[in-house]
Each structure stands twice: as structure tokens, then as C-alpha cells.
Amino acid sequence: MASLLLAMALVLAGCASTARVANEAVGPLDVVTLNLWHDKQDWPHRQDLIVAELRALAPDVIVLQEVLQDIALPNQAQVLASRLGYDYRFFSVDAPSQARRYGNAILVRGVIEASREVKLDPLDDYRNAGWVRATMQGRPLNLYVTHLHHTREGGAIRAKQMAGVLELIEATAGDAPSVLGGDFNTRSDTPELTVLNPKFAEAYAGTHADQDTNTPAHTTLNTHLGHPPERIDHVFVERDAFRVVDARIILDQADDTGAWPSDHYGVWVRVMQSDVPRR
């Protein structure tokens, strides 16, 4: 009997040790969102600035907005993915046959297994949302990107577009956890974005809970290039699936020549995948 109890104890200890190893093997997941400002000013130079910082940060996921390709301009997401060693998907409302296409992209350090894009209403606003499914650190993950309507008075339009984003999430998420990033052209506390609150947490505000993150000090718009100081670029993570541990503004410095990486700053967030069962 004593031998049996000892054997059972060893098995249980081994299971616990294996579980601990499995949990410890799931490291942090780093996500960056950045509006590229398409090919404005000196894109080759700006590209080098962006690549240098992203290479140093080595995020697992990069979501991009204002991605452009044209006859003399290779697709910007493809170029960045190639230089950084990422897989990518580009999403555009423009027909694939067009030389000039504009849209959003998702880059991952891994292999993209599935993807989908949807056009967002109203169609004459030329907005879309994209989804990819990838396995990150041995776990399936849903990644979404969007870029919403831009006018200050366009809250109702953004609300309609967010309904389309949520429909895409509902249609594709399945049992895997989800991350949504992009240029939402509004603060995260506006009605059009608070529809995310039941399921998603906004990462940057969550790690600066002791501060008003809608003050000019937290802007993601580059005020040096004439923009008002507003935080409109966000990363949302599924509440039951992730614990946000850090977030900060990046790509917010000019180089020695006075060149800026973009007219937006980037947002970098770090989350830990939760072992708590998802509701």
C-alpha cells in the first residue's frame, strides 16, 4: 500500500512539474500597432527608422494601417515583413488587380494559417478590417486590425464600422483568444469603442490606471507634424485570455536629421496569456 501511495505521489508530482513547465514555457506576447503614413515625405528613410526600432523590440505581432502599394512602390507591409523576417497579410478594399492599393496589414513572427478581410460600412468610406489565425508559443491566436473613419464628428460612422469589426470577430474567433489593434481615430472611452468593454480590455490605459491617458502627454498623434494631441491608436486584448503587464508609446522621437518615423507614434504592449478558463 505504501508503495502504491508513493507511486501515485510521484505521478502527481510529475504532472504538476509538467504543468509548471508548460506554463513557464508560455512567455509574454508583444504587440505593436502603427499607422505608417503611407509614403509621405522620405519613405525609404522613415522605413529604416521603423525597421531599426521594431527589430530592437522584436514584437511577436505588428498591426499596420495606411499601408500602400503602387506601380513604383512595393507593398509597404511586404517590405517590412521581409526585412524583419515575419509572415504577413495585407487587407485592402481596392481590387487585387489595381496597381495602387491602400489598406491595413498584420505581421507575425510565425506562420499565418488562415486569414479573412471584410469591407466596413459605409462602403464609400473605403475602410476594412482584417483577421489572421496564427499559432504563437504553441497556442492558437486570433489577430485583428482595422482603421476607422477619421472625422471628429463621425462617431456614428465609427459605431457602424465597429459593428462590422465585431461581426468579423464573432465569425472567426472560435475558441482561440483574440487581440485587436489599429487606428480607431477616436479615444478608447468614446461610445463607439466602449462596445468592446464586455469582452476586451484596452491595454495602454490598463497599465496607466493612475493617470488620465487622454491627456496630451499620452498622444499617439505626432504633434510635431501638426496633429492635435490625441490618443487614437489602441490595442485591445480579450479579458479572459490575457493579463496586460506593460504598454508604452514608441517611435516617438525624431532622428538626428529631424526625420520622424511617421505622423503617428506606435503603441507597444506586452501581455501574458492566462491559464484561467475563458467564459
How would you portray this structure in words?
The protein is of the alpha+beta class and 279 residues long. The protein has one domain (32-273): Deoxyribonuclease I, Chain A (4-Layer Sandwich). It contains 6 helices and 12 strands. It has helices at 2-25, 43-57, 76-84, 155-172, 191-194, 203-206, and strands at residues 29-35, 61-69, 87-92, 101-108, 112-120, 127-136, 139-147, 178-183, 200-202, 233-238, 242-250, 266-273. The strands form 2 sheets. Strands 3-4-2-1-12-11 form a 6-stranded mixed β-sheet. A 6-stranded mixed β-sheet has the order 5-6-7-8-10-9. The radius of gyration is 20 Å and the shape is globular.
Any key phrases for this structure?
279 residues; globular; alpha+beta; six-stranded mixed beta sheet; Deoxyribonuclease I, Chain A
Q: Which geometry do the CA atoms define?
A: globular
CATH architecture designation: 4-Layer Sandwich
CATH class: Alpha Beta
Q: In order across it, which strands form the biggest sheet?
A: 3-4-2-1-12-11
Counting helices, strands and paired strands, the structural category is: alpha+beta
Please give the alpha-carbon distance between the first and last residues: 41 Å
Amount of beta strand: 25-35%
On the 0-100 scale, what is the average pLDDT? 91
Individual helix count:
6
